[in-house]
Specification:
alpha+beta; four-stranded antiparallel sheet; 12 strands; binds 2-oxoglutaric acid
Length: about 290
């Protein structure tokens, strides 16, 4: 759906000025928007899954593990395909105000794409390099939006997400090295043309949602605090957006319509998009392992 039409519809949850900000800058912060009871349930579930990781030693379909992982001290970088980990996460993704936030940003007909929970541990030195999301999972249009839910307060210390304003209106970059191998990040040479001084830190208290368009250049810095930074990320698109390559991180709910109706006509955006590797052949672990190889 065209931006103008999305903005004409009466908002369900997101203030009109916040919706306009999202379309102008390519991202927006919705402070303290998730109800406390949901936050408590999500955090309990996250704790319990972290606890379950104590018995595993190698990364698998559910867990991306950092090098310091042990049964005494879990070092889970990412819970993969979150909605497949516990029914609570799907209930949250499909039945809570998350679907309404998505509808305010992509239009009334909303398709679920994927989900994950990224942890960032103090002292781990983990960063997420500058990247755009859509080159890893291209769609027929650029409606996909990631809604990141802060389960704990995120200040400048915890390694908040950083976004480059208006970069969603700029080009899409290859996320490969000189040999064409996937790196999951924009090359240093391409980043030279980006004004890093314009980057905005997306800080917020627990219950804040950050909405980031799939074209927006973003990253996140090291966690310099003493506590872990858990951020649950859910991706939605308009129902008329269709993936045209195999998905890197499919879930059993990928493609489900969570608001409105399925599309009868695909929306095709003519702006070009690089072709990613065929993840069905190459396999995909997570952005952390892809970027580490760079
Ligand atoms: O967890 C973070 O700080 C960044 C997450 C991100 O950009 C991603 O997973 O694509």
């Amino acid at each position: 759906m065209e931006t103008g039409k999305i903005l004409q519809a009466t908002p369900r949850i997101v203030d009109q000025n916040k919706r306009e900000e999202y379309f102008q800058k390519g991202f927006v912060t919705l402070e303290n928007i998730i109800p406390m009871d949901w936050l408590a349930r999500l955090s309990d579930c996250s704790e319990s899954l972290l606890n379950d990781s104590r018995v595993i030693q190698e990364p698998n379909d559910a867990y991306d593990l950092g090098p310091n992982h042990s049964s005494e001290q879990p070092h889970v970088r990412r819970l993969k395909a979150l909605v497949d980990r516990d029914p609570l996460f799907w209930e949250f993704a499909s039945e809570s105000i998350m679907g309404d936030i998505a509808a305010d940003l992509v239009g009334a007909d909303v398709k679920f794409h994927s989900s994950k929970l990224n942890y960032k541990w103090p002292g781990s030195g983990e960063i997420v390099k500058w990247h755009q999301d859509i080159p890893a999972w291209p769609h027929t249009n650029y409606s996909p939006v990631t809604l990141g839910v802060y389960l704990e307060d995120v200040t400048a210390l915890e390694g908040p997400l950083l976004c480059i304003p208006k970069s969603h209106d700029g080009p899409l970059y290859f996320h490969t090295d000189l040999n064409g191998q996937w790196t999951g990040s924009i090359s240093k040479k391409d980043m030279d043309s980006i004004d890093l001084n314009s980057a905005e830190e997306l800080i917020g208290v627990s219950g804040t949602v950050v909405a980031i368009n799939c074209r927006t250049i973003h990253s996140s810095a090291e966690n310099f605090s003493k506590k872990v930074r858990p951020v649950a990320l859910f991706v939605y698109s308009s129902a008329d957006a269709f993936a045209w390559m195999p998905q890197p991180t499919p879930t059993c709910k990928t493609g489900e319509i969570i608001r409105g109706s399925p599309a009868r006509i695909a929306h095709l955006d003519s702006r070009p998009c690089p072709v990613p590797p065929d993840w069905k052949i190459q396999g995909y672990n997570s952005i952390f392992s892809a970027q580490k190889a760079d």
